[in-house]
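Run log, item B.
One chain of 401 residues. Sequence copied directly from the ordering sheet:
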Amino acid sequence: MSTSDASTSTSASSARSLRGLLLLLATIAGVSVANIYFNQPLLDNFRQSFPGSASWVGTVPAVTQLGYAAGMLLLAPLGDRFDRRLLILLQIAGICVALVVAASAPTLAVLVVASLAIGVLATIAQQAVPFAAELAPPSERGHAVGTVMSGLLLGILLARTASGIVAQYFGWRAVFGASVVALLALAVVIILRLPKSQPTSTLPYGKLLVSMWHLVTEHRALREASLTGAALFAAFSIFWSVLALLLAGAPFHLGPQAAGLFGIVGAAGALAAPLAGKFADRRGPRAIITVSLVLVVIAFLIFGASAKSIAGLVVGVIILDIGVQAAQISNQSRIYALQPDARSRVNTVFMVAYFIGGALGSGVGAIVWPVFGWIGVTIAGIVFAGLGAWNHLRLPARAGH
């Protein structure tokens, strides 16, 4: 075999190995993040199991989301300080314990505490995404991040559907038990296949957290990407938080299962994530974000005209998800290039802002829907996208990578 043939063979083998690792990281992200959405279709089941605390069942998904936000802030930055593989395995062990407690919870209070722990520890995904950026060469970073994010997004979108099916046939406690089995099987694969990462910081934990503020003040592109991402996720969340209410009324008269099935439609956006990453690598992430903002506005214009059309809602969902996910991949591709030795902390800043935007969108939806109805929701979505566009375009391209 010639030297060139050997080099080509080695390159092909390396590419296959990278693809395998990215698919594993995508699976890790999807299986872990699904745990914060499993409980949302189960509220009526909780109400039946704990009739004495029925009015408090809504605290279960609420504390899970709060736990996830806290976990992003407190645990995700550790990826710069320690081996991410070890952190992932430790968090899997912890979340399995929390899931077992949830599955066997004798009271709602115990379920709430377990759900808080599940939320904190489900931030495993926030180790997987920076890990992908570390493993991939710079020319393929966008595609690598997109591949892992597709797994995370599929986990978000399909978790409710899977949870509802398992609960229907085996009861709500089996949902948490099934997740334990999946996570333990995944841990075995991680031990066998996932390499160790190289820590990039020696900062003590306290200084590691404080350094995130310095990253925000030092990198204007990080501030811009975080605010744009927050605005787009607010638009995304306002739609998904109100969709079930729209479908429940005239002329649809559909139950929550129908809203859950829209998650399968939204999976088109998740599957488009790696493609968005490739375009970001080739054409530059800022150009893709600009197109994404336009797509989100188009989606809400379609929603506004589709208050009585399932077909219109389906088309709008596909466009919305592609737009939001393409922008997220492109924004993350940008920020990971800003300071390679702080990728976990940079990712934490971005994702905390992102989820704050999501919470804001859900809150605005709850306020707007009763007063202005569906047209008010669609206008609010366009306003959020417009704020994202203003924030994105006011930063010179040369400063935003």
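Observations after the first pass:
- The domain at 1-199 is CATH 1.20.1250.20 (Growth Hormone; Chain: A;).
- The chain has two domains: 1-199, 200-401.
Flagged for discussion on Thursday.
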